[in-house]
């Protein structure tokens, strides 16, 4: 493994598989234990540096670090020196001077973790940067698919919705194709990036045509602000053309699963009964997120030295 | 001051001596002599007219921590310039006779280059109503170039009025061509790479749409239009078409758009963030070809100094802009002269003669012949050096060429016969 996890596009097949296998080992090591804790990162300090609100990702990383016995500092940009104008670089150097070994960073600007990695000696984990990447989300998605379907090679994954603004979609495109899955992006043309033609994916504007062939349907959250920016005419039209409801669920093959990175807009991109159906892996994804993030922290901080 | 330059190759021709006296070129020929003259050995050096920049940000007044008229002038002189147009997006904005005269006087005080203020087209660069263009034209600064650079005059009716109005004093509107509705939040060139990096794209069409609109307006009202920092192959095509129709349009390209591509953005290092953004290799080739065939009239630096804290940040938070004055000639040497796209006369034409003509500057961009003002530079084309930002004269350090080896070294610059640079060192 490299020193940082900045993007899924950086991961080769061996490294990605190592993360997934390590997550599986960690999960089985902890299974059935009353105290869900390993001593691996005792004495190490992990900082969660969050410039954007994200309760679920922050808690997931916090839990992962704590289960590895690391000390965890949660640093929210709101109400901190950052709100007084301190730069990202100064913040990072301050945290490092206080002895952080790894910085988990969530930031609204694409590339912020890359900048950070150039300024600090410790490891940097990208917990979501702008519209760029969210590599641990893709890893936990891949982990979930592998657990459900038993494989990733040749699995047909439809990623549906606001690909243009989605770091989850980008990370999944790179990681899943590295791991041998076949990805189809499904969205209105306004929500697909101009350069999507060069990505290792199929592109479709027609959800109904894609569903019968999909092993996995990964729904993306539609942000409310897109609805007023002419990316599509109305929430109603979007929902009709690209929403996953019970009727569309029935078009899926018997083994196919439905995923969503959360938080969901129930009734918009995904119907409530679909989100709660047995096909849905949404709750499972959250649980798997902790194992995968433990694996990442372990490999970046503990694996080499232990 | 009398200066005798021995053995310079004027526009790359055969070695000749140049005698500078009383601010003018007194004689050009073989084996000249002059009693008491300062002798400059120019063996192997190329003599060119002093360069003229149509597009410099000197940051004074307002951001003297990034650059001052004096530090920017020194950088310009070291780059071989004898005149620079100082852009209007200062604080306060150069939208009144008072501010343009202030900048002009600061330039006179530094005495390193002629600082020619550009006046804002609209009050406060807000694109709402015309600034007092006539008052700026009539001021001591004699403003002839008007630009809201950094902002596009996006309102077509206002742009039409500006083009028409400046005809009264032979002015030109220099447009920053960018349709703002197409570039909201834009961070880099829109395409494969922006999609991958998750940086909002600045589509080529946002520039081309405004260039196309403006050449039609300029043709309709019979006015002079200048297009700032052209960056796309499509814009070059539109300009070629407009010129073939006889539209009074001129255009400039920056050194960085001639050398660098969007690939530099993959580092997320904001030193490469610039507006308009670095484009694709196809665009770069079209810009070089456009400059070589004269479709693009001039090289202009868009020298944009920024303080460290404005660049050492996340990409999205960083201010756009790059330093350009000190390496401009080297970049032109690398991208056009060495590949054989432009000869030395061509360099003089695109970097001195035409920019001076566009800005209606008397005394600059003149041939190196007896009787002309002694504004010239001496270049060692054989020298090569790695760019070290710490060694630059600019107060800022945001050079996109840091660590890159570039050809050519400006050995001397003369402004009206006075050496502003000698042996590669500024004289003030």
From TrEMBL, chain A:
It catalyses: carbamoyl phosphate + L-aspartate = N-carbamoyl-L-aspartate + phosphate + H(+). Pathway: Pyrimidine metabolism; UMP biosynthesis via de novo pathway; (S)-dihydroorotate from bicarbonate: step 2/3. SUPFAM superfamilies: Aspartate/ornithine carbamoyltransferase (SSF53671). Keywords: Pyrimidine biosynthesis, Transferase. Carbamoyl phosphate binds at residues 56-57, 106, 134, 137, 262-263. GO terms for cellular component: cytosol. InterPro entries: Asp/Orn_carbamoyltranf_P-bd, Asp/Orn_carbamoylTrfase, Asp/Orn_carbamoylTrfase_sf, Asp_carbamoyltransf, Asp_carbamoyltransf_Asp/Orn-bd. One of its GO terms (biological process) is amino acid metabolic process. PANTHER family: ASPARTATE CARBAMOYLTRANSFERASE, ORNITHINE CARBAMOYLTRANSFERASE, MITOCHONDRIAL. This is Aspartate carbamoyltransferase. Heterododecamer (2C3:3R2) of six catalytic PyrB chains organized as two trimers (C3), and six regulatory PyrI chains organized as three dimers (R2). L-aspartate binds at residues 84, 167, 221. Residues 3-146 form the Aspartate/ornithine carbamoyltransferase carbamoyl-P binding domain. Belongs to the aspartate/ornithine carbamoyltransferase superfamily. ATCase family. Residues 153-300 form the Aspartate/ornithine carbamoyltransferase Asp/Orn-binding domain. Its EC number is 2.1.3.2. Gene3D superfamilies: Aspartate/ornithine carbamoyltransferase. Catalyzes the condensation of carbamoyl phosphate and aspartate to form carbamoyl aspartate and inorganic phosphate, the committed step in the de novo pyrimidine nucleotide biosynthesis pathway. One of its GO terms (molecular function) is aspartate carbamoyltransferase activity.
TrEMBL record, chain B:
Coiled coil: none annotated. The active site is at 302. The lineage of its organism: Bacteria, Bacillati, Actinomycetota, Actinomycetes, Geodermatophilales. HAMAP family: PyrC_classI_B (MF_00220_B). One of its GO terms (cellular component) is cytoplasm. InterPro entries: DHOase, DHOase/Allantoinase_Hydrolase, DHOase_cat, Dihydroorotase_CS, Metal-dep_hydrolase_composite, Metal_Hydrolase. Zn(2+) 2 binds at residues 149, 176, 229. It catalyses: (S)-dihydroorotate + H2O = N-carbamoyl-L-aspartate + H(+). GO terms for biological process: 'de novo' UMP biosynthetic process; purine nucleobase catabolic process. PANTHER family: ALLANTOINASE. Its EC number is 3.5.2.3. It holds the Pfam family DHOase. Catalyzes the reversible cyclization of carbamoyl aspartate to dihydroorotate. Residues 46-233 form the Dihydroorotase catalytic domain. Its cofactor is Zn(2+). Zn(2+) 1 binds at residues 55, 57, 149, 302. This is Dihydroorotase. Substrate binds at residues 57-59, 89, 275, 306, 320-321. Keywords: Hydrolase, Metal-binding, Pyrimidine biosynthesis, Zinc. It comes from the Bacteria. Belongs to the metallo-dependent hydrolases superfamily. DHOase family. Class I DHOase subfamily. GO terms for molecular function: allantoinase activity; dihydroorotase activity; zinc ion binding. Pathway: Pyrimidine metabolism; UMP biosynthesis via de novo pathway; (S)-dihydroorotate from bicarbonate: step 3/3. Binds 2 Zn(2+) ions per subunit. SUPFAM superfamilies: Composite domain of metallo-dependent hydrolases (SSF51338), Metallo-dependent hydrolases (SSF51556). CDD domains: DHOase_IIa. NCBIfam families: PRK09357.1-1, pyrC_multi.
